[in-house]
Design goal:
The structure holds two protein chains of two kinds. Chain A is mostly helical. Chain A has 22 helices and two strands. In chain A, about 75% of the residues lie in helices and about 0% in strands. The chains are: A mainly alpha, B alpha/beta. Chains A and B meet through helix 7, strand 2, helix 13 and helix 20 of A and helix 2 and strand 3 of B.
């Protein structure tokens, strides 16, 4: 099968050069999708009424929606992300693991899997976009959004575990679909719960195709084509190869590929953060300047469309896109953990936006800022900007980044294909042929994503990911008293010594 | 109080010899033989979301399979007049044998050796070397 695939892929360039001039197919795919995507995108990102008059720039209501939710959860749970931080670390280290549960999913494993779904191109390319459009000041807002987002993540992952389905065969299914249905039914709002769950599932499928797929394919192609000139203008070809590999894993069930990626990704993340740190150390004299550029840029930026509010919008948007707090996706991955107290998974999950946004995204944007790579209106954005920043110190870094980009993209796609599939089976029921249809569509979107230009892809991805937050956050508001109850119960048991450290 | 011998078992011929050795000693001393089967598992490995969702199911399957492997051995020991029990756990073989030795107040640990003398053994240390270094009770290595 692999052989046939290689033949097919190898034969395509000849076919294409005869039929199409470079990039023509890409453009055709792009043009065909624009009329479907555009109206939807403008609805999701429509500005708050009057925001133009008040802030001097259009403020998308959906960004406000996420930030307000994160702030509400932060206050409601009494700044749990700071108070509970130490406890989170100790849970991840396994200090509270019952030895009898050896062999089950540990908090560390659930955190890593959820992270491999979120740490991805959002941290490399997304930050590039944020700094390009919002200036260095966007970093400040990104960190703030990351810190607030920890409370959203805490809420949704606690609920994900509490309301998960445990089937007789020992498998589990969890996530917003389940807590929206079951949780709201408990509060006598079964109809609303069902409606929100279906709405969420539809959006989750869209998110899986958008941010979890097209954006990843698009940006890894962008990095690869800058290194291997052969691919320039042949996004569809790169997409085809990528789609074939993704297909091998999710349709062919070839776990070994996914296994290798899952093992390599953490090392790539370490190399990435390590290199960023090294660049910061090499340029340590510039560091105070960079930090001051970030702070002044946050409140009084120059050369940024929309001024301070423009920087804020970009920072908040890219933070949400990168750590997915309030979106509900990670709750699906966290639900598999072995725990007697759902609140423990909330504590574990709150580390996710911290690692993803407060640590990794900040590294990227500090590197961009410190190396002076940001040139407003230069057209260098996304992964190209990040790559340029790293290359200014390590000329070979483009290659490292290309490998990292492809691997991150790949692991994110595998995670999201699962999230999307869960939503799909929630809507249509389980069954081999139904699941196959979803997986095939997923592969087609890989090709579409790498063929289109960044602008429309990012718009579509953002819009899809953010629509998930509409249903999810309504549910979180309605269910937050339940979370409070679960947390209170857990803390009581901690205080009384019923739950003890085993190490 | 009777002595307890802890025997590491992984289904190989070498491990089988270790069990036989333990049984022979137990017949003389009247000690209890506890056969330990460890399913190698790390709390820090990485999984895809799909694997996480199936983990609980897989764990049960692994435990059943391991139990099915040990049970005939236990029956055999019992029928030959040795007081025997089994223990199936997930984790690291070295850590678990040491931990169980303390838990069950075992008087000795008996294991077979793999017989490899190559580079891999030297680098990875192997169970034999680990136990030789850290075991809380005397260790008998059966060739």
């Amino acid at each position: 099968m692999l052989k046939r695939l290689l033949w097919a892929v190898g034969g395509l360039p000849f076919l294409s050069s005869a039929a199409y001039a470079q990039g023509e197919l890409d453009k055709a795919i792009s043009d065909a999708l624009a009329p479907i995507i555009n109206p939807f995108v403008s609805l999701i990102f429509s500005p708050l009424p009057g925001s133009q008059a008040i802030f001097g720039t259009a403020f998308p209501w959906i960004v406000m929606w996420l930030v307000i939710a994160a702030s509400v959860f932060t206050v409601y749970f009494g700044f749990i992300q700071f108070r509970g931080f130490k406890h989170s670390i100790s849970l991840v280290r396994g200090d509270y693991l019952d030895p009898k549960d050896a062999g089950e999913v540990t908090p560390f494993q659930a955190l890593c899997t959820a992270l491999s779904g979120t740490v991805g191109l959002g941290n490399i390319a997304g930050v590039g976009v944020a700094v390009y459009l919002g200036g260095p000041g966007a970093t400040f807002w990104m960190i703030l959004a990351g810190l607030l987002g920890m409370a959203s993540k805490f809420t949704e992952c606690t609920l994900g575990v509490h309301y998960r389905n445990e089937y007789e065969d020992g498998t589990v299914s969890g996530g917003p679909m389940y807590y929206l249905t079951k949780g709201l039914a408990e509060r006598g709002m079964a109809g609303l719960g069902k409606f929100l769950a279906v709405f969420f599932a539809i959006c989750c499928i869209g998110g899986a195709f958008g941010g979890g797929n097209m954006f990843q394919a698009n940006q890894s192609f962008s990095q690869i084509s800058s290194i291997i000139p052969f691919f320039q203008g042949k996004g569809w070809l790169f997409g085809l190869i990528m789609a074939a590999i993704v297909g091998l894993v999710i349709i062919g069930g070839i776990k070994s590929i996914a296994k290798v990626t899952e093992k390599v990704v953490p090392f790539m993340a370490a190399i990435y953060v390590g290199s960023a740190l090294l660049i910061l150390i090499l340029n340590v004299t510039e560091l105070p300047g960079a930090i001051s550029a970030i702070i002044t840029g946050a409140f009084a930026p120059t050369a940024v469309a929309g001024g301070a509010v423009g920087a804020l919008i970009q920072g908040f948007k890219r933070a949400a896109f990168s750590n997915e707090a309030g979106i509900g996706s990670a709750s699906i991955a966290h639900s598999a953990v072995q725990t007697k107290h759902p609140a423990t998974e909330g504590y574990v999950a709150l580390l996710e936006p911290f690692i993803d946004t407060v640590v990794i995204c900040t590294m990227t944007s500090l590197v961009i800022t410190i190396t002076g790579s940001w040139v407003p209106d230069s057209g260098v954005t996304g992964i190209a900007l990040t790559s340029q920043a790293f290359e200014s110190n390590f000329s070979f870094f483009g290659y490292v980044l290309a490998i990292a980009a492809v691997l991150f993209a790949f692991s994110t796609m595998i995670s999201w294909s699962y999230y999307g599939l869960k939503a799909w089976t929630y809507l249509f029921g389980e069954g081999q042929s139904k699941e196959l249809i979803f997986k095939l569509i997923f592969c087609i979107f890989v090709i579409i994503g790498s063929s289109m230009s960044l602008g429309p892809v990012i718009d579509f991805s953002d819009a899809m990911i953010f629509t998930m937050a509409i249903a999810n956050i309504v549910g979180l508001y309605l269910l937050m008293p339940k979370v409070k109850e679960l947390v209170a119960d857990y803390q009581e048991k901690l205080a009384s010594g019923e739950i003890k450290k085993v190490k | 109080m009777t002595d307890t011998y802890l025997v590491g078992f992984d289904g190989t011929a070498q491990a089988r010899r270790a069990v036989e050795h333990a049984a022979a000693r137990a017949k003389q001393s009247g000690a209890h033989v506890c056969v330990v089967l460890v399913i190698e598992w790390s709390p820090y490995s990485f999984h895809t979301p799909e694997e996480l969702a199936e983990r609980h199911k897989r764990r049960e399957e692994e435990l059943d399979r391991a139990q099915a492997m040990v049970q005939p051995l236990i029956d055999e020991l019992k029928s030959s007049g040795v007081d025997a029990s089994s223990e199936v756990r997930h984790g690291n073989a070295g850590d678990l044998l040491c931990q169980l030795a303390s838990e069950k107040s075992a008087t000795q640990i008996i294991i077979g050796r793999t017989g490899e003398s190559g580079l891999a053994q030297r680098l990875l240390g192997g169970l034999v070397l680990t136990l030789a270094q850290v075991a809380p009770v005397p260790v008998t290595i059966v060739p």
